[in-house]
Predict the structure.
Amino acid sequence: MTRDCFDRSRRRVMRAVVTGIPAAVLLWSSRTEASDKMTQKQAEYRDTPDGIYSCGMCTLFVKPNACKVVEGEISRDGWCKAFALLD
Ligand code: SF4
């Protein structure tokens, strides 16, 4: 193996490392964000209120249609077992 051939191989390896690390970090970060919230099934979310209590009255509700702890689209008229009443 000549010195020139060795330098080209080393450049290829370095290029793969430089471009591969950001891709791996982005993939890991997107997986972490996805797993931070419960699924609607885990939270036993439903589109209807529980008596007088609904997502619109919950401290975890994020206007207009999201939640800090449950993933997906959330109705202000919905409810789940993580409900936390506003003060
Ligand atoms: S009740 Fe609260 S925690 Fe549950 S989905 Fe609605 S806003 Fe999120």
User: Anything to note?
Assistant: The beta strands are 61-62, 66-67.
